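User: Assemble these into one structure.

Assistant: Restating your components, then the assembled model:
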Amino acid sequence: MNKVVVGAQWGDEGKAKITDLLAQDADLIIRYQGGCNAGHTVVAHNKTFKFHLIPSGILYKGKTCFIGAGTVILPEYFEEEIKGLINEGIDVSGLKINPLASITMPYHTEVDGYSESTAKKGKIGTTKKGIGPTYTDKMARIGLKIEDLYSEDALSEKLDIILPLKNKTLKEVYGLKTYEKEEILALCKKYAEIFRPYVCFDWQKVLEDAKREKKAVLFEGAQGVMLDIDYGTYPFVTSSNPIGGGAATGSGYGPTMIDEVIGVAKAYVTRVGEGPFVTELTDETGDKIREIGHEYGVTTGRARRCGWFDAVTMKYAVLVGGLTSIALTKIDVFDSFDEIKLCTAYKDKRNGKIYTSYPTDVFIHKYLEPVYETHKGWEQDITGITEYEKLPENAKKYLARLEELLEVPISIVSVGPDREQTIFKSK
Ligand code: IMP
């Protein structure tokens, strides 16, 4: 069975833990989009590992872990991440980079930083890791790919086209520093060395062999459906396709290789950065969720915005994300709550109009308020429960209601950060 793990909300749903669990049964793990804007925390070997780009499957010996063609790589960040793993004694020999992945150049991070710090209106709240500008150049066909680093002629020819354009924009649009060709060539030489041990020029053969031998493939997404460039809360989104479909373009395999798409969702919702969030709680309940759930960014350290579970966006995520089941994480955060709210619709404050389907026009979201149903809490510690049947009745009722609303099964329930704190619910 080949599975895709997708964030079903605005990222930070606990994908890393689910990916880590599913990676045990996978032979090949492929991260298909995004870059080091992602922050994945995995607790294993009694240690906490923080991943940004490298698939967390690397923690298991003998797995092949690919950084796919749909990703963007910031070389210095990658270098730091790999060094960190090596220092912890992790065997990274299974790591491979698709040479078609894009490179984040210094001017990409500079433009991202500039745009975010000078924007008075329309600030996105990006991670300032150059994600948007790197994907912009890729789409404009003026980006650099990993494979370019190993062909002096190609690199030189490309830079002759890219640099005059880049420098004009850097100087005239942003008032930023420009680059000499020699400077970029020297950087690229350095990058070539950083990536050399991992670049997989025969990736087609590796993927073909795995397919022929019916190896189990796990496709690892970053961010979440609501941050998808096409379907998310545009423009408050990232610049790639975290949806299940992204695995079909960013991994090197097409859609026919995918059997299941598991959407990871928290039992509540969080969001970092700007953008609409109808169920956001700016009161002490929101603070309580943040403190109990340790809702602070892995990549930026920012406090995450918190709110109740939103079944309206989640139903939408099931559809556009292509989800076949849900892994629900952090349900234990509600252990001390006497009441849990669940948003089943939105109401337009201006005219009372009720939305049960997600309105894609985010401009109107400021006029929307959540319509809640209230569930009784279970008020007991569930972090040690490992069987679905042993969950308190109120927790089971809450889960059953989610399944009913979302019309998709909840296949996994996570009750804590450790691998053992996981309930696999049979379908
Ligand atoms: P960018 O991906 O850095 O361009 O940021 C665009 C938006 O996506 C911002 O709101 C970020 O906070 C958000 N974002 C990017 N990566 C993640 C992530 O891994 N988790 C949660 N939000 C993210």
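The chain has eleven helices and 18 strands.
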